[in-house]
Design brief:
The protein is an all-alpha fold and 82 residues long. The chain has one domain. It is built from two helices and no strands. Helix 1 runs antiparallel to helix 2. It starts with a helix and ends in an 8-residue tail after the last helix.
């Protein structure tokens, strides 16, 4: 194996590892938002409901923005699995 081939293989492996890292972080963030929604369901009819909804909305926006920035930074295309 030539040096260029080895470097290319390493680059592709590193890119795939970063892709899996970003995807797993996105999945974990979405799971945490779902847990937050379930755990604050009791407040649906209270004055706290808008606060919890705002927290979820802000969290969702942060996850989306972070994942988008990471994908652009590392040149990762969005997979169809998410």
């Amino acid at each position: 194996m030539e040096t260029g081939e080895m470097g290319s293989a390493w680059t592709e492996s590193a890119k795939r590892a970063m892709e899996l890292y970003v995807e797993s972080g996105e999945k974990m963030g979405k799971m945490m938002l779902e847990l937050h929604e379930r755990s604050t369901n009791w407040a649906k009819e209270t004055m706290l409901a808008p606060l919890f909804e705002a927290q979820r909305s802000a969290g969702k926006q942060m996850i989306e923005t972070s994942v988008e920035m990471a994908r652009k930074l590392y040149g990762i295309a969005k997979s169809n699995g998410i």
